[in-house]
Each structure stands twice: as C-alpha cells, then as structure tokens.
Amino acid sequence: MKLLRDDQIYWPAEDSLLMLDALDPDLSGKVCLDLGTGSGIVAIEMAKRGCCTVASDISPRSCLLASRNAELNGLEVHTVQGDMTRHFRDLAFDLIAFNPPYLPGRGDPRWAGGRRGRELIDALIDDLPRLMREKALILHADFNLPELTLRKAEKMGLRAEICLRRKLAFHELMIVRISRA
C-alpha cells in the first residue's frame, strides 16, 4: 500500500496495523465506515477487500489525505468531514472500524482521548444501536479499561469480546469487537 504522509496527521503505527489484522478478509457487498480515518490506511484496506467504503474524520486535512491516498492506490473511498457520527443521520454501516485517539488527557487531537482515553470510545458506543448493522471494531489500550466497553455494550443488548491483542513495551493494544446479539 502506498501512502502520502502529512506530519500534521497521525501516521499509522502498531495500532493501525492491529486494526488491519482485525478486518474480515472479504468485505464484498458491505458498507463500511472508517471513523477517524487519519491517513486513510484502514479505509483503503477495507476498499481493497471489496466493500463500499466511507472514511470520516473531524479534520478536513485528514479527509483530503485519505482521499489522495485512496486515489494513489487506485481505490474509491468516500470521505466525509465531520465530528464523530453526528453527520450520519439516516445511515447505518455493516462494519465500523474505529482507531480513536486513546491516550488519556487533553492535548494533540491525533492521540489525546480525554479522561482515561475513553471520551470518543464512549461516544461511539452510545451511538452504535443506530449506526451499526452488523459489527464494530474499536481499538483500545489496556489503560482505556476495555472491560467497561464490554459491559456497556452488553447492557445495550450487544455482544462484545476482545478479538485481538498486541503487547507493546509500555501497554497492550486490543481490538474490541461489538456485534448484534
């Protein structure tokens, strides 16, 4: 995969690669959302696997970079600039992939995820019943308390599990898969 780089946009790292590993090998006929697309790496991989792909980010610059990267790879990705999911009023997606800014605290929006790094994770989970047709993949670090995500999803009548893990030097990354029960 070829990617243009912009130093103001989060560059794919271990978290992005873990999300790629969590994607189904065949997404033909699906409508998929890469929420918080950044460089567009996940959206591009989704499109390669056959789905109609929407990439969304709060940053207009990220949306432009994701579009350019999709074109560079000869793929069609629809980009939408907006804050989380508010702009998808009547749309639902078969698969939602979300690699949020997950570091605790405030600061650079490329990696600061608010208190415990959960603010954007919790916002998406609250909106899943409306937005998700089949499943969502949400990246967590161990300090994001993924067990809260599991409990919250289950209380909403959804099935939730940790489907992938990758141990790094100072923390562990996980993909939480949430699906219709």
Automatic annotation (TrEMBL):
Coiled coil: none annotated. Residues 16-105 form the Methyltransferase small domain. PROSITE patterns: N6_MTASE (PS00092). One of its GO terms (cellular component) is eRF1 methyltransferase complex. GO terms for biological process: methylation. It comes from the Archaea. Keywords: Methyltransferase, S-adenosyl-L-methionine, Transferase. It holds the Pfam family MTS. Belongs to the eukaryotic/archaeal PrmC-related family. PANTHER family: METHYLTRANSFERASE N6AMT1. This is Methylase. It comes from Korarchaeum cryptofilum (strain OPF8).
